[in-house]
């Protein structure tokens, strides 16, 4: 579970300080599928960066599974992120010269897994997102939706406690976007995967258990989805 308390984030560029997050309080229980919605510039990506430990807050607390992440050294932070958090970027962030399976293997090897286990886990993760027939293709040989599903398999291959996704459907047509959301739904339904997903498409946000709305760096509203919607 994630507990965010009084979180603020400012960016300083020369003499200019931009206040982006202005006191976020948020609790994400284990197993929840949470959507974050809000206009462009509202601070959604910034919030996801702080929660996934890709960046450090200006003030406030982020506790993940009882661990105060402010206590981490840089190395401990990186290891925690590598071992326990998965992140899916809007633009997939795949290595173009590597095949799908190689893209998924790289972080597993970085974690210290041996090659045989890393390969087996990568195959399993690709199969789980419906890419059993695409193991050896490079990103340029895959559609946008398939590339995003490779990126999701890379994020889930190490079985993260929390999967973060920043507008994973933003660059996709509606059929591919739907396929990506179905993968999220399946991970949540079958594995109880905790997911925090930023999107600005209400149709996709509604697939989650709960939606929070971000406006000018503050949470301006919240909506729980009834079980009937799922
Ligand atoms: N590294 C940065 N340096 C300075 N300003 C930034 C930086 N990253 C984001 N911002 C600013 O913070 C605000 C929120 O950005 P962001 O979190 O990307 O919003 P969203 O994802 O909701 O569109 C924007 O005004 C953006 O220009
Ligand atoms: Mg963003």
Automatic annotation (TrEMBL):
Entry keyword annotation includes Lipid biosynthesis: no
Coiled coil (residue ranges): none
GO molecular function: ATP binding; ATP hydrolysis activity; transmembrane transporter activity
InterPro entries linked to this entry: AAA+_ATPase (IPR003593), ABC_transporter-like_ATP-bd (IPR003439), ABC_transporter-like_CS (IPR017871), ABC_transpr_LolD-like (IPR015854), MacB-like_ATP-bd (IPR017911), P-loop_NTPase (IPR027417)
Protein origin, superkingdom: Bacteria
GO cellular component: membrane protein complex; plasma membrane
CDD domains: ABC_MJ0796_LolCDE_FtsE
Protein name as catalogued: ABC transporter
Organism: Candidatus Vogelbacteria bacterium RIFOXYD1_FULL_46_19
């Amino acid at each position: 579970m994630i507990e965010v308390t009084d979180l603020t984030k400012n960016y300083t560029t020369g003499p200019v300080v931009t206040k982006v997050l202005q006191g976020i309080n948020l609790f994400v229980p284990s197993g929840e599928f949470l959507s974050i919605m809000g206009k462009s510039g509202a601070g959604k990506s910034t919030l996801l960066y702080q929660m996934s430990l890709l960046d450090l807050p200006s003030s406030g607390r982020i506790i993940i599974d009882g661990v105060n992440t402010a206590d981490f050294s840089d190395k401990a932070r990186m290891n925690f992120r590598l071992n326990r958090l998965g992140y899916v970027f809007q633009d997939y962030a795949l290595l173009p010269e590597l095949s799908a399976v190689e893209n998924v293997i790289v972080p597993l090897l970085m974690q210290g897994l041996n090659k045989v286990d890393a390969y087996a886990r990568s195959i399993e993760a690709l199969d789980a997102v419906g890419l059993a027939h695409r193991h050896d293709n490079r990103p340029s040989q895959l559609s946008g939706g398939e590339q995003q599903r490779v990126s999701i398999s890379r994020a889930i291959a190490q079985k993260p406690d929390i999967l973060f996704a920043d507008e994973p459907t933003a660059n996709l047509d509606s059929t591919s976007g739907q396929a990506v959301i179905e993968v999220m739904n399946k991970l949540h339904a079958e594995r109880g995967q905790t997911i925090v997903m930023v999107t600005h498409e209400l149709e996709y946000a509604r697939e989650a258990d709960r939606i929070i709305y971000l406006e000018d760096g503050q949470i301006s509203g919240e909506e729980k989805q009834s079980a009937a919607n799922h």
